[in-house]
Amino acid sequence: MNNLNRFLSRYWCPFLLVAWFWSVSGLLVDRTYTVFLRPELGLLLVVALVVMMGFLFAEMRQWGHPRVFGLDGASRMLILLAPLVYMSVARGASLDSRAFQNRWTEMSGTNAVLRAGNEMGAMNSAASSNTAVEATMLDLTYSPARFKNQQIAVIGMIHRDSKIKERFGSDACLLFRFVVSCCAADARPVAILTGGDVPADWADDTWIRAEGRFTLRDDKGQPVPTLEISTATRIPKPRQPYLY
User: CA separation (Å) from 200 to 90, 164, 232?
Assistant: First the structure.
């Protein structure tokens, strides 16, 4: 026990700083930091690496010097170690249906629907076209009237909800993504209603590219952005799963 205490008192801080430097460097190299941070904010991680290098050089000057390792030192070590353990466990994970259920509000209460209602009276819908227009979930929820009655293609994740099926029909489900302003903590879900050709054995959180006719479905006087899917294709998870 005395040997362990002696070792920790001399070396825990530089070893932990090296572990932090290695982990943050890995996030930058493979860009996995984009699962919780906007891509352009990667510069902050570069700054963090520079700061860690400064602390590490300062610690190396004290290399091997005995220091007291008591409750205070153990507490600081555990506080710095906890995020490293979390990063190793959650590496590559992103927000999914569980987060969607916790953060999403009902269709009739979304800003997107209210905005859709305003736009319906403020502008004419675009002309119909047989060629699918590539759109994002942001486009369809923030400017729905622009795409009304058009053939569109959009990428998102499936979410099936019993209340949605009761309200809109047995083939109804939601297609959703998350929009990040700064980091995953402030991510908010955007979703559209879908109907049509989505195989029943495709589980929640399956990434698909859906094509079909986009409409604004009336629901008790409120327009609900809806995609009547004609073709749905399973796709791999995008390298950047969030919208910005």
Answer: 29, 15, 12
**Torsion-angle region of 90 (φ positive above 0: left; ψ -120 to 50: alpha; else: beta):** alpha
**Residue 232 corresponds to which tokens in the numbers above?**
């749905």
Model-level pTM greater than 0.85?
no
R_g of the chain computed on alpha carbons: 25
Per the listing, tokens 């791999």 go with: 236
* SS3 of residue 155 by DSSP: strand
Tell me the per-residue pLDDT of 152-201, one tens digit each, with 9 for 90 and over: 999 999 999 888 888 888 889 999 999 998 888 888 999 999 988 788 88
Give residues with Cβ within 8 angstroms of 116, minimum separation 6.
144, 145, 216, 223, 224, 225
For residue 60, the SS3 value is helix
- What are the structural domain ranges in the chain? 2-90, 97-234
CA–CA gap between residue 189 and residue 104 (Å, rounded): 6
What topology is assigned to 97-234 in CATH?
Answer: OB fold (Dihydrolipoamide Acetyltransferase, E2P) (2.40.50)
Contacts with 236 (C-beta within 8 Å, 6 or more apart), sequence order: 207
